[in-house]
Design goal:
With about 70 residues, the protein is mainly α. Helix content is about 75%, strand content about 0%. It has 3 helices and no strands.
Amino acid sequence: MQVKKLLVLALIGSSLSISAQKAVKQINKQVKQITYESHLRFLASDELRGRNTGTIENEIAARYIANQLQKFGV
C-alpha cells in the first residue's frame, strides 16, 4: 500500500517537474539576461529594505512578482 502511494507521488512530482522545465524554457526564450538583471536589481534594492514580512516593502515586492508572473500566464 505504501509503495503504491510513493509511486503515485513520484509520478506526480516528475510530471510537475517536466511541466516546470518546459515553462522555464519558454520564459528563457522570451526574456533576455538584461531583463533578469533588472528584476533582481529592483527586488534586491535598498528601497525595499529587505522585504520583511508585514511591511509595505514586502507588499510592493509581492505585487511586482505577481504582475511579472501574470505577464507570462502563470
